[in-house]
Amino acid sequence: xxxxxxxxxxxxxxxxxxxxxxxxxxxxxxxxxxxxxxxxxxxxxxxxxxxxxxxxxxxxxxxxxxxxxxxxxxx
Length: 75
Prior knowledge:
3-stranded antiparallel beta sheet; alpha+beta
């Protein structure tokens, strides 16, 4: 199974939902929000989605590590 699409939905006043779709028809929903910063979180989701498309969604820890290491500069 591979992630094929990631879609965000911003709803008033400050709600955000995330839909992840796979090539096998499995769909997952999440709520990636920091209170009052839905647009900022939405931008981060879209930037990090490049690392997730084509990946196996069952490898949660591996995907978390990829996003963590790719998303932040530590030095």
